[in-house]
Design goal:
58% of the residues lie in helices and 10% in strands. The protein is an alpha+beta fold. The strands form three sheets. Strands 2-1-3-4 form a four-stranded mixed β-sheet, sandwiched between helices. It has a two-stranded antiparallel ribbon with strand order 5-6. The longest helix has 21 residues. It is globular.
Length: 363
Amino acid sequence: MEGRPYRLYGAEISYFTGKVRAYLRWKNIPFDEIASSAEVFREVILPRVGFSVIPVLIAPDGRCLQDSTEIIDALETSHGGPSVYPSTPRQRLAALLLETYGDEWLMIPAMHYRWHHNREWAQRAFGSLSAPAATPEEQLETGILLAAPFAKAAVRLGAEPHMHAAIEASYEGLLAELSRHFEHNDFLLGDRPSMGDFGLFGPLYAHQYRDPKSGEHLRRVAPRVAQWVERMLHPMPLSGEFRAADEVPVTLLAVLRRMFIEQMPVLADTARRVSEWMGAHPGETLPRAIGMGAFVLEGQEGKRIVSPYSLWMLQRARDYFRSLTGCNRTAVEEMLRAAGGQSFLEFEDPPRLARAGLSVRPG
């Protein structure tokens, strides 16, 4: 087993494969990537995981890892060396929050732009991945069938027609904030990527940089963000440092402020709903969605699925925050208040959650 590479089952069009691939490159971990065709799903992923999902990472010793966050955490433990988690409190919490924001909230613009601006391209890409030996016409037919649930998911995630303009305005606001940040920073927290970078990279690469119309838009309106994507694509392995003195740049506080304005009210409502559901269904695994809930972007109200999984992601940041004491706790609270994060300070945690495949269960 020694010297054998990991096997990454994923796809270029996959949100979370991009996150894991970039991490493996930065960590300098040898791997072979296998495109997840229909045959691969049937013969490898379903027998090993039990459901259709990517990315999946098979270790040299045969261990099967699934879920981008758990894959990275497992590799951080087993490979050591420089970490994507800063050791200082403000930077570490910022990285955890921004991973949650990228993984769970930027799904809205990513899915909107793919399925409402790049639909036929995405259908062809799905068909090519699933049936690489088929003709282009057959691939398009296959892609239309495979992509249909994802296109519907875009609406369920909040991209209803009346929300399109607000989603695009919010996304362009984020690009402007990131552009100001990357004017003086190569990555979010210094000269090397953090877990927050990998969280943002998933949507900003796989959907917004690669999809043709979205990519043209990103390179035109936010070239510095596109350059950051390119740095993340092939980062210098194990290189760089986080900023000294636990500094979180003011320009990054603007991105955290956007998260607290847009995402935290939804997370607070989700926590309330999850607590109520768990009280009514003791010991049961939560479904992937528990109804629909309201959210607001740019003054416009929409509806989206209520996702308990997002609380499992936030729980990691909440656990770290609650572990802090003394001057570390004070420093983090000051950062949160400067970023408008009072809602995080006052957040009412639901009962503890543990990941169970694509869902979460009581922890």
